[in-house]
Amino acid sequence: MPVVNPEKLIGLQRNANEVRNICILAHVDHGKTSLTDALIATNGIISPKLAGKIRYLDSRPDEQLRGITMESSAISLYFSMLRRPTPDASPVQKEYLINLIDSPGHIDFSSEVSTASRLCDGVLLLVDAVEGVCSQTVTVLRQTWTEHLKPLLVINKVDRLITELKMSPGEAYKHLSKLLEQVNAVIGSFFQGERMEEDLQWRERAEERGAAAAATAKDQERAERKFASGSVTEESESVATTGAEGTFEEKDDEDLYFAPEKNNVIFSSAVDGWAFTIRQFASLYEKKLGIRRAVLEKVLWGDFYLEPKTKRVLGSKHLKGRALKPMFVQLVLGNIWAVYEATTGGSKGKGDPDMVEKITKSLSLTIPPHILRSRDPRAIMTTVFAAWLPLSTAILVSTIEHLPAPPAAQASRLPALIDASPGAKLIDPVIRDAMINIKATKDDPVVAYVSKIVAVPESQMPHNKRKAGSALTGEEARDLARKKRSEFENAQAALNGESPNDDLNGITEALGESSLNGTDDSPLAEGQQEDPEHLIGFARLYSGTLSVGDSVYVLPPKFSPAYPHATPEPQKVAVTGLYLLMGRGLVALTSVPAGVVFGIAGLEGHILKSGTLCSQLEGSVNLAGVNMGSQPIVRVALEPNNPGDLDKMIRGMKLLEQSDPCAQYEVLESGEHVILTAGEVHLERCLKDLRERYARCDIQAGEPIVPYRETVVSAAEMSPPKNKDLPRGTVIGVTSSKQITVRLRVRPLPASVTEFLEKNAGAVRRLYSEKKAEEESKRRTVMNAENETGAEQDEADGIPANDTGLLSILDFREKLRAVFSGAKCQESIWGNVVGKIAAFGPRRTGPNLLIDVTEEGTCQRFFQEAHEASEDETEPDPDGKPSADALHPRDFSDKIAYAFQLATAQGSMCHEPMQGVAVFLEEVTVTASSDEDSSMREKLGRLTGEVIKTVRDSIRQGFMDWSPRLMLAMYSVEIQASTEVLGRVYATLSRRHGRILTESLKEGTPFFTILSLLPVAESFGFSDEIRKRTSGAAQPQLVFSGFELLDEDPFWVPQTEEELEDFGEKGDRERISKKYVDAVRGRKGMLVQRKVVGDAEKQKTLKR
Ligand SMILES: Nc1nc2c(ncn2[C@@H]2O[C@H](COP(=O)(O)OP(=O)(O)OP(=O)(O)O)[C@@H](O)[C@H]2O)c(=O)[nH]1
Ligand SMILES: [Mg+2]
Fold it and tell me: How far apart are CA 968 and CA 956, in angstroms?
C-alpha cells in the first residue's frame, strides 16, 4: 500500500466537513493501540501484516516493553470511500481526514485521557469482550458523557470468546448481549443522575416562580387597594399562571444507548484483524436472502429468527417451540466461528483445509496459494478475515458515518461548554458565535485549546528530517522491520534455539528502540549529545485560522473574562511553528483552519501543561475543563548522582512538569527537589524521561514520600491527662519572657464536621480569598504575620470569585451549623461554635478549626460580615496594629492564628498535617513588662516570635493529651483475577495490610473482580508483585481514595497490670502505626526513640 502523501492530508484540513477528530478510550489493555495499528496500516505507514502486533503508536521503548501505553499520541489518517450524497444518488468517491488520538488506559495516566478527549468530537470506546465493563471503562464513559462526545462502542477481543472461553456462538451471543446491557446500564445511571438534577432544578425554579408570583400578587393587591388599577391585575395574573402551568419535560434517552441495530456497536478482534457492524452483514445477506437491507439491519441483532424454508423473519413469539438460533448467531457469529474452526481449529484445536476452501468459495474470496499452503494456520485465518471483514473498513466507515464532523460537533457541544466556562456571561458574543459556527476566515477570532505539551527532540523536528512526511515511509518501515526481525531471530536462535516467531514483542521492541531517522547516514552520536527538546502543544482550533508568525494571547487555566488583566496578565506569544501530528513524527504546516487537531510551537515558557489561546483578551473564553485525572500523590525526592548536575536536573524537572499532564515539581523547605506523580508506573516513566531526555544525567530517586494525616480521638481508655488539674486537652502556655499567657484546649472535631469541611475545602478556600480581597481593597497595607516569616504560600490566589457550584458565605455558615447540630455531640461544647470560628487550617482551608471562646473576642471571626465588625465596638482592630497605650491580647490575634496554621500543618507526631482537630482559644492575658522605655512596636516585634512558638507548641501538646491516631493515604484497588490465582492475590493483599471490600464473579466468565483498600505506604511494588505471582494474569488498578484512620495509638505502652501481663513490658508486637510514624520522623530528621538493645542479658547468653 503506498504511503499517503502529507500534502493530501493538509489539503483535506480545509474541508471541515470531511474531517473527523476522534480518540480511542478504554480500560487498560483492552486493545486500543492494537486497533489503531490496523487503521495506520491503511495509510501505508506500517505493513498490514504487522498490524495488531507492532503497536505503532506505542513509540516509547518502555511502552513496548511493558505493553502499556503511557502517553497519548495523535496521528492524521487519510481515508476514501464511496458515499451517496443523497440516498438515491449514485455513490461518489469522497476523501476524509481522520485525526486519531490513542490514549493510555492505565489509571496512572488517566489525566492523558482528559487531555485527549478535550480535543476530539467523537470517541471509539473499547470494551474487552471477556473482561467487560471495568473501572476505567466507567471513567471513560463518564468522560464521554460530561464532555458531550459522541461515542461508538467497539467490543474488542471477540476472538477470546472462541479461543479462551471456548463458547459456542449461541453462548457468545448471550454473553455479548449481557455486556451491552452492562455498558448501557452505566450510561443509564448518568442519564438518571442528570435527569434528577434537572428535575430538582426545575422544581426549585418553579417554586421560585411561584413565590415570585405570590409576592407580585400581594404587591398588586396592595397596589389595587391604593390605586385600584386594572392593568396591573392582568399582568400579575399572567405571571401567576405561567408559574403554575409549567411541567417538567421528560427527556428522551433512546439515542444515548448502544444498540447494534443502530450501527453504533462494532464487534472486533484487533489481533486477528477483523471487525464488523450489523450494517455490513445486512448488505452481505441482502441478495442472498432477498430481504431489504434496511429490514435486515433491524433484525440481525435481537430475538429474531429465520424460518429455514420460507426464509422469513420470525419474532420469538412465532417460534412455536422450534429450536431455531437467533439470526445473529446463525448468520453472523456462526460464520466467524466457522472461519476459526476451519483455520486454527477454534475450540477444536485443528484446522480443516476442505472447510477453508468451502468458506472462501462461498464468500468468493481469493486467497493466494502460498498462504493456503502455509503451515501457519493463523496466516490463513487473518488473510481470510482481511479479505472478508477488514478491521479498518468497519471502524473507519462507522467513524465517518456515525461520528460528527467538527462543524456539527461544535454547534452541538460548544454552547454548553462555553456556558460552563468561568465568567461565561462576559464572553464576547463574536467569539461565541465564531466558535459555535466554526468560522474560519482570516478575520475571525482565533480560539484554540492546548490540552497538553509534548517534548520533541531537535533531531525529530521536521526541519531536521531528510524529507517532510511521516516518520517512516511504508517501504522504510518494512525494511526496518525486516532487518530487525532477522537480527532478533539471530539473537534468539543464538540464545536458546527457540522459534523466534513466538515473541513478536521482541521485534516491536527492537523497532521501538531504533531511532526514527535511524538511517546509517544520520549523525546519531552527535544528535545524542546535543539534542535539545522542543515543546510542542497538542491543540485544537475552534475558530479562525492560525498561521505561523501570528501572535495570540495565552490564557492560563484560571483565567476568567471577568478579570482579563488579573495577574499574571496573559501575554501575547508568537506562533513559531504549526504541525500535523503523525504519531512518531511531525509535518510542518504554514497555517491551520478551524476544526483541526494540530501541533503548535512557540509556547515554551508561557504555558504549563494546558491553556487556551485567543486572539483577543477582553471577552475571551477559558476552555480549561474539569480534569478528571488522578491527583498526583506519590512524592519522590530526587538528586543527581553527580552534584554538579543539579542545574541540569532542575531544568529537566521543569521540562517534565510542562510536558506531563499530571507530574508536578516542588522544592521542599528542606531544599529537596521533589516530583509528584500519579503512581508507581507513572513515576518510573517520569524518571526514565528525566534521565534520558530532559535532564540527561544520572538521577537517584529516594524512597517514595507518602502523605499522612494526624488526628486525635477520644478513646475509651486513655492515659490520664498530663496536667491533672486541667480538663483533657487543655494547655496553659507561657511565653519565655513570661509576658503572655495563653490558655487553650484541643478537642477532636465530630467526624461529620471533619467530613463536611474536607468536602467543602474548595468553598472555604474561595470564601477566604474573597474575604482577603475585600479586606485588601479596604486597607492596602495589612501587616501580615506570614509576610514576616514568609513560610506559607497562598493557594487561594487567583481563583475566580464566581466559580459556579460553590457555596456562598451565608449558605456555608448555615450548612456548617446544620452539620454541627446534626452531629451527635455535646450541645454545651459545640452548640454555638460556628459564630466563633476564627480560622480554618492548615493553609487556611483545612479541616481543623480555631475557635475563639475568649470573653473579649481576641481573634476576628471568620463568618463576621464586614459591617457587623464595624458596628461592634468591642471587636479587635483587624489591622493588628498595637493600640496607643498598652499591649492588648488582640494585638496578638494574627500571631495566634498563624501559630494555629503552623501547628495544624505540622502535627505533633511526625509533622504531617492535622485533620479533625478543634482548638478552643480560652484566654489570653498580657502582663505589663518591666522595661517601660521601649516603644509598643518594639515590644510587639519581640513578642511575635515568642507567641507563635508558645501557641504552636501548646496546640501540639494539647493534641497529645488525647489518643493520637495516624491516618493513612489509601488506594482503592481493583483486581480482576481468575479462580486459580485468587488465593495468591489475597495473600499478597493481606500481607500488605490490604482490606477486601467486595468480591464478585463476572457473569459468564471465570473471573473475579476484587475491590479492596490498600495503604499507599504498602503499595510500592504491589502491582509488580501481583503480576509476578499470578504470572501476569491479574492486573491491579490503584486509585487514590482518600485518608483512612488507622485505629491504633502509635505511642501506647502497656500500663495497667493486666496489660503488662498481656503484652509484656515493651508491648511486644510491633505497632504498624509506630512503624509509620518512626519512618516519617526518620525521614524528616526528627528524633526517633528506639530501643537498640532490647535485652542485653539475653544477647549475652545467645553469643555464648
Ligand atoms: N486475544 C486478543 N488480544 C488482543 C486483542 N487486541 C489486543 N489484544 C492484546 O491485548 C494486549 C493489550 O493490547 P494494547 O493494544 O496494548 O491495549 P491498550 O488498550 O492499548 O493498552 P493501554 O494503552 O496500556 O491501555 C496486547 O497483548 C494485545 O496483543 C484482540 O482483539 N484479541
Ligand atoms: Mg495502548
Answer: 20
